[in-house]
Amino acid sequence: EAGVTQFPSHSVIEKGQTVTLRCDPISGHDNLYWYRRVMGKEIKFLLHFVKESKQDESGMPNNRFLAERTGGTYSTLKVQPAELEDSGVYFCASSHPRRGGRDEQYFGPGTRLTVT
Amino acid sequence: AQSVTQPDIHITVSEGASLELRCNYSYGATPYLFWYVQSPGQGLQLLLKYFSGDTLVQGIKGFEAEFKRSQSSFNLRKPSVHWSDAAEYFCAVGAPEYGNKLVFGAGTILRVKS
B81 vs chain A: nearest CA distance in angstroms? Predict the structure, then answer.
């Protein structure tokens, strides 16, 4: 079974440019999460999809970030326009819903975003 | 709101020595607890989890963790560390009423000296 994959692994862009990160969850996983780790800080939740619907986007920093999940499969996270403070590692995770919420989230390798 | 504290940013142990990584959480009820490991260049790998029941849980790679409700702790242990255990370790808390989003500690970087 393939794990969670993320593309690209690294991205270097200039301030003001646009970047789109992609996540392919494990097949059959309805839950998809985005997290971010800014240098020297904790890994923080950004948002949660259940299939194609946004269940919780309380962690999205501002309206420069837009996440989509087309057809409940892969997800994209677009940053437009990028700012210096957006630099960090963006992780995607997926899980299969379990009774009582006892989900195990499987993480991808992350995309390291550097904004210069 | 949930929070997780990993008080040790760096820990160095000798190969073959025992290891304990500390994790304390703040949450009103019994949360779901996780330990993840990130090796250089890799993603986060789930080491073990606690949902309920036996408070001593076994994980992969010879790791175990003990949930202590009275201390709000979920410390990770390994009796004998191998050089390949050098990595960054994250404790995380989740709860169904929060949609299972995970709240992470700051991480502990483990160095293993030979």
Answer: 24
